[in-house]
Amino acid sequence: MNETASIPDMLDVIQVDAVDPVVVGPGCLRRDLPGPADLRLWMVEMAPGSVWPVVDEHDTGEAVYVVAGEVIEDDRRFGMGTYLHFKPGSRHRPRTEKGAKLFGINPRTKT
Q: What is the average per-residue pLDDT within 65-89?
């Protein structure tokens, strides 16, 4: 018996750039990705010179991986390959001069 025969039925393959983006603000796009029910998974693209339109607050925290470019938090610059863990209760407002592509995860809030 082929033990991997059921894998295609249990696997979603997504071309991220094909996911319809949500415009969050000028130069800021978010693509929501499928994943576990208790997590939000997303890819954010920030155009050069853009600033996240609001202060991002995290009751439960957030994890961000810089896929490409550079993101700036306060006066600290984080380039490609950097992993950022925002702890519960954190607040931040990312910006970029060069442009950035970010992959992020945060717990879904219960409403």
A: 97
Query: What is the rounded distance in angstroms from the CA atom of residue 18 to the CA atom of residue 38?
Result: 24
Angle at 68 between CA 81 and CA 40, to 5 degrees: 80
Q: What is the pLDDT of residues 37-64, one digit of tens each?
A: 999 999 999 999 999 999 999 888 999 9
Q: What is the C-alpha separation between 7 and 9, in angstroms, rounded? A: 5
* Global pTM value: 0.87
Q: Is residue 4 over pLDDT 60?
A: no
Tokens 């961000």, located at residue: 64
Q: Label residue 76 exposed, middle or buried (CB < 10 Å: 0-12, 13-18, 19+).
A: exposed
User: Residue 95 gets which letter from DSSP?
Assistant: B
Give the separation between CA 110 and CA 36, rounded to whole angstroms.
14
Indicate the SS3 state at residue 58: strand
Collapsed DSSP state (helix, strand, coil) of residue 46: strand
